[in-house]
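haha ok so turns out i had the wrong file open the whole time. this is the CORRECT one, sorry everyone. sequence first:
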Amino acid sequence: MTTLVLFHHVLGLTPGVVSVADSLRHEGLNVLTPDLFDGKIFDELSTGLAFSNELGDDELLHRAELACDGLPADVVYGGLSLGVFPAQHLLQTRPGAVGAVLFHSFFDPTQLAGSWPTQCPVEVFGMDHDPFFVDDGDLAIAQAWQRKHANLHIHLYPGEGHLFLEPSLPDYDECASRKAIRDLITTLHAIGHK
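then structure:
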């Protein structure tokens, strides 16, 4: 059974994140959702971002590493927006990953520790007019990286929402969310059968 370690976004481990994880569990996948914010949940991106900045990148990555202590190497790392940062960090620094699923964000791998894995699929999901994903350059970085790394695949959905999987937020897009979850399930089952 495929194990996915799914890191939450800047609002914390919200009911929406848990709902995404539960939908994957319903499909027979083992999904772990580490809480990097120690139970804190935020209603606004700005307050979540302020808390994350106060926590600091090093502490965030340390918490993610601790959450994966004792896990087998052959897991899939996943992240939602801010959660992509620890997911990519572990993908590049913890050998043995069998894949990664990265929503709403992508970091330049050369700016992270470790090295890019070439033997496992890395799937990036986002909306084609998301001002954070597109205008902040994440999509362009992912596309440039994809041209040189055949194991990176990008899934784009029409719309401009950022956290479009999160039912309680204005960004929520039910149609795109259903499609993305179906694509995610297909991806994870394919990884599990390799």
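Helices lie at 15-25, 45-55, 57-68, 84-93, 131-135, 138-148, 174-192.
again sry for the mixup
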